Amino acid sequence: MELFNIFNFQIKLINLIDVILLGIIIYQLLRMLRGSLAFNMLSGVFVIYIAWIIVRFFKMPLMETVLGEFAKVGFLAILIVFQQEIRKFLLLIGKGTLNSDNKNIFRFLPWNWKVEKSFNTNYEEIVEACINLSASKTGALIVFPKTSELKFIGTSGEILDSFITKRLLISIFNKHSPLHDGAVIIANSRIKAVNSVLPVSENPEYQSKYGLRHLSAIGITEQTDAIALVVSEERGTISVAKEGKIFENLSNEEIVNFLTKEFSEEMITIKGKTTKS
38 is in which domain, residue-wise? Predict the structure, then answer.
């Protein structure tokens, strides 16, 4: 069914549907990856691809060849760097599709992944829990995502959807708890996951100085826009990690102010639209 012509090109209904579906997929993919290292890489590849289309239109064969090869390498790099996330995503889809007891098989689709900022998170209570843990030199690692709930990371541990309480956090990181080794992920004022495995920083500046818990805190902030709060098991100190850097020797009040400032902009999602409060 032909709809209209543009520059002697016949635009059919199936072509219009094709473009719309591709646009939806690209939009949801960018929305899902927003705030992560993959988003920046994908954005860079997209810019190179647009430039390739432009030089191809103006018939510049040398630039077309160079940019075309860059685009191919970029997509290959994304597949290599994020193969673990891609594998987990495919496993989640397969598990949801084949499990007859799971009624909501579409919950892992990107457009069902709500991206919201903190709603009145009680950072004072979280810091109080960390103070209690540091007093007994009990290690802890808490991650606060900004633009993504880190569901890929969360599935490496135990998925929860719980209120944040001081006693709950202390019990999770208790040395006798089976969930104490990994990280707690807090998003949208809820504990979303516990015992989660985080990527470890490979920065040589930190590898010789910190243990696995601190390297994990640094690693997750290198790859995403999350903030990490870590309690040292050896020294009992509380540190904050952001953008691949770690900040130590902060007072309790400074930590609360730091977290409050980072998540002070609240977002409200109403029927798919996000507005600032």
Answer: 2-84
